Amino acid sequence: MDITGTYRISARREVVWAALNDPETLARCIPGCKELDAKSPEEMAAKVALKIGPVSATFAGTVRFEDIVAPAGYTLVGQGNGGLAGFAKGRAVVRLTDEGTDTILTYDAKADLAGKIASLGSRLIQSTTRKLADQFFAKFAETLGIASAVSDQSETADAADQEAHST
Amino acid sequence: MTAISDSPFRAANQYIGKSLPRPGAKRLLAGRGRYTDDIVVPRMLYAAFWRSPFAHARLGAISIEAAAAMPGVHRVFIGADFAAICKPWVGTLSHFAGMKSAPQLPLATEKVLWAGHPIAMVIAETRAQAEDALEAIEVELDELEPVVDIDAAQLPDSTLVYEEAGSNVIFRTRIESGSTASAFEDAEVVEAEFRFGRHTAVTMELRSILADYDPSDGRLTVHQSTQTPYQFHDIYARHFGLSEAHVRVVAPDVGGSFGMKLHLYHEDMAVVGASILTGRPVKFTADRMESFLTDIHARDHRVRARLAISADGMFRGIEVDDVTGVGPFSAYPRTSVVEGNQVVRLIGAAYRLKDYRADLTVVAQNKTQMSQYRAVGHPIACAVTERLVDLAGARVGLDPFEIRRRNYVTQDMYPHKTPSGYSFERLSLEECLDKLHEAMDYEALRKDQARLREAGIHRGIGIATYVEITNPSPAFYGVGGAHISAQDGCVLKVTSSGGIQCLISLSELGQGAEAIVGQIVAEGVGINPNLVRVITGDTDMTPVGGATWACRGAGIGGETALQASKKLKGRILEIAGAILQCSPGKLDISDGQILDQGGNIRMSLGELANLAYFRSDLLPKGIQPELTVAHHYAPSGYPFAFTNGIHGSLVEVDVETGFVKILKHWVIEDCGRILNPLLVDEQIRGGVVQGLGAAFFEECLYSKSGQLLNGSMADYLVPMACEMPDIVIGHVETPTQDTELGAKGCGEAGTAAASGAALNAVNDALSPFKASITQLPMTPERILKALRVV
Amino acid sequence: MSEQVSITVKVNGSIVRRMVEPRLTLLDFLRRDLGLTGTHAGCEMGACGACLVSLEGRAVHSCLMLAVQADDLSVETIEGLSENGSIADLQAAFFERNALQCGYCTPGVLITARDCLSTGGVPSRDEIRDALSGNYCRCTGYEAIVDAIEVVARMRAANAEGSK
């Protein structure tokens, strides 16, 4: 599953970058986040409650920052164990560019599900992830004290989001 | 319906061949069916399984202490617990030389092989408590690269599903007859690559098993939703080291099987093992998601095939390459190679051909295991063959009916051996073809089609011939070492009031096995079918036999019942003759009365039974009161009794949306002597709809990481009433001479050719657009892709 | 794990009082607690129709209801409908036509058929197929079921005519 999106945030890039690297801010903005503790500058332990289709569970795992290029972007790599619900792995490449006093944030996210959540939720993973992303950025903007981050332009979604190899 | 029969029974009582309703249906209509999950025994515990979320992983530590302490939990098991008491099983058979397959134990020990592989098992007072406890289990899993692609799996650098095999290829074979090289020289060639979606049975009743081991006398009783209690009787005894005499397997009412419930599942062995280890009854019923993840899958094939023809449309040769991606191990005990084996032996079988070459490659994957499911291989062989035949017809300008008529095996060729080694006793290919042409009113359909095309409405007409394996001999499994019987046994007991109890080794799944046996026994002995009670499915009661699969019930089971009833009639008349002091040859039985040659009633069967059971003092000297007979019958003529038939399909394709409306479906079928037309028709109808599901809806979709993505009935589409057509059925009867009854099987014929006919129909609808499709299911997206709209 | 709750349900004409967990489905309550095994589990998500029962006279999926939601309500299952004779003509027609094979979907189909015919009149075959589109059957291919329902619809309409 592969989704991309673009947001325009009415704040300067340095501000956005700082917020994106602050575990407290992230904890507040990630939908369903129960815990997010920095274990090292690059790695955080996380507990996130997720509901995809009929399956809801708390995913316990890690979120790591990789390929950090301040203040242009980084890659977030997360993986969580949802117990009986299954496993979720995700990777999001986040890029920030200046546009006047605004920042354009683009993300390119890939997710891989395993277990019950894959069998029952695959059809909904794309719409759910997009909804979660929207929730994140709405909260993010609110945290920065600005009007909600407008989702800019078309979001190209990978048509073969199921990665079924016999299509 | 043409009644072709020279049976001596035709004249007398005439229950055989009658459309009588099934006595067993009344209970089911009242909601009094007794399916395995309905059965409750004292102190029963319920099982739930912790399953691997990954398709391929190394299994590390499993922590179960917290789970074991939870409310209602009796015990938590892991792999080592069952490894200690259960002999591993390996799904290979010796007549498939070179097969390799990983030995299996009830719960995973070192590796997990598919997403859904059971790793731990909780037994508790309720299923809910067992599931609650599952949440407290922690399992260490080290993900490995899953094998999910049939081509990548064969590359030298591919991860291996089973390292010791050295390769992911479980089995390979080549069939060669004549010389296809010369057949293809200077010939017109039509060819295509076909893909068939992976299926699962989606039976209404989910798999269910209740095992009850009594340690005080070492007896194991298993109630199981299964098609074959005899096979499981043998398996549980052998693998758990129990004596067969102390094992009982009962198949209660079974809510659909279609072959799926023939195979051994890890959960079955775990439940039996758990009962043995705890001395408590243990029940497991799969939920629908578990069913999608663990029930055998089928039909995952990629077939490349080509047909060489001469300029006037005569078939010269066929070449086939079939690669099938199965599961991580071969199914037990029937293997995962039979489906492919049948595909490559059935392609082209109905046609005159000497030059044939087929390669089969069976590849292991980290997906759900695959094995026999209704019509095993026939739907694929039929779709491939019949599509090529239509392409050939189009190439040389011959109508689909005409090109088949020209190339069929003809009446003067029987007995006929196909290039792949199958023997046909006698088929009715041309007669069925002609009957279909008439039943469809083919000319009128073509006229309608032409007229509607001008209005932008695109109808398609497709036909597909099939030949079908029924009445299998030991050549199927027995010769390979499988403890699967090809014979049946029947015990008949006269009751003291003149009824008959019939215990027979067939299985009743709703198809009507008990009903037809009742009709046969009634006619064979000479009493009303209402007085015959047929009992099946209990290894403590019914003789060892083959049960129900591969359309063997009517032909083999029926013959067993017929010969048993003749034996019983002879016995009865011997006793009657002695009592009445006349030759048994001068007596007959009709409607439960013993008659003399003048047609006078001399005594009733009830009176005779009374004498035999309670007044043996009145029996003449030398006469034993023996009113119980047993008879076993093993097929000995042709290795299979082939049936044949042909399907017609009429569809309407919306070329803007890709949606297909199935307007009508026809079947002309020849299953030999028909025992009950009502039941045959409904078997055909059910089979057709399953085949149409294959054609348009059903496919198990996997991700690149081996996850089943549509493991629910919301996402795996099955045919529902509003999408299905009415189905017109006609019959031809070509009895087999191998048995007195002359019956062949009919249970799978509907599924064998329905998808092939639909495939041809859709292609016919798309032909003005020079578009073609050779992938099932034909989803709207694939049809639009074929039309180059998306 | 939560406290059990008391419910009072009229089941097949008899008042039943039980303590149940809030999370218990109506389906499991009927099958397990009351031994009414004629209603079946097929998918636990309302897609197959095997679990249909008649609640206050209307067909509902018992797998999608909690037992506590049936408190103070009236439920009829296949056993009750069979014993009170209200679907005898449907059962007879299904029997004659062999409109069932394994029988697992049959109780749910009969509940749907009863609903479908409750408004009177003779539905067309397409209308019957539409009414059945929530009942999954793997054995019959549906046509025999449609035939049987059609026969009963005609018979009932003829009887209604006759008694005018």
TrEMBL record, chain A:
Short name of any one Pfam family annotated for the protein: COXG
Record-given protein name: Carbon monoxide dehydrogenase subunit G
Superkingdom of the organism of origin: Bacteria
Range of residues in the leader sequence: none
From TrEMBL, chain B:
Keyword Oxidoreductase annotated: yes
Gene Ontology terms for molecular function: iron ion binding; oxidoreductase activity
Alphabetical list of InterPro entries matching this protein: Ald_Oxase/Xan_DH_a/b, Ald_Oxase/Xan_DH_a/b_sf, Ald_Oxase/xanthine_DH-like, AldOxase/xan_DH_MoCoBD1, AldOxase/xan_DH_MoCoBD2, AldOxase/xan_DH_Mopterin-bd_sf
Residues in Aldehyde oxidase/xanthine dehydrogenase a/b hammerhead domain copies: 30-145
Gene3D superfamilies per the UniProt record, alphabetical: Aldehyde oxidase/xanthine dehydrogenase, a/b hammerhead (3.90.1170.50), Aldehyde oxidase/xanthine dehydrogenase, molybdopterin binding domain (3.30.365.10)
Xref: SMART domains: Ald_Xan_dh_C (SM01008)
Entry keyword set: Molybdenum, Oxidoreductase
Protein name from the UniProt record: Carbon-monoxide dehydrogenase large subunit
UniProtKB/TrEMBL annotation, chain C:
Keyword Metal-binding carried by entry: yes
Occurrences of domain 2Fe-2S ferredoxin-type (ranges): 5-81
Keywords from the named record: 2Fe-2S, Iron, Iron-sulfur, Metal-binding, Oxidoreductase
Origin species: Hyphomicrobium facile
InterPro entries reported for this sequence: 2Fe-2S-bd (IPR002888), 2Fe-2S-bd_dom_sf (IPR036884), 2Fe-2S_ferredoxin-like_sf (IPR036010), 2Fe-2S_ferredoxin-type (IPR001041), 2Fe2S_fd_BS (IPR006058), Beta-grasp_dom_sf (IPR012675), Diverse_Oxidoreductases (IPR051452)
Lineage: Bacteria, Pseudomonadati, Pseudomonadota, Alphaproteobacteria, Hyphomicrobiales
GO molecular function annotation: 2 iron, 2 sulfur cluster binding; metal ion binding; oxidoreductase activity
Protein name: Carbon-monoxide dehydrogenase small subunit
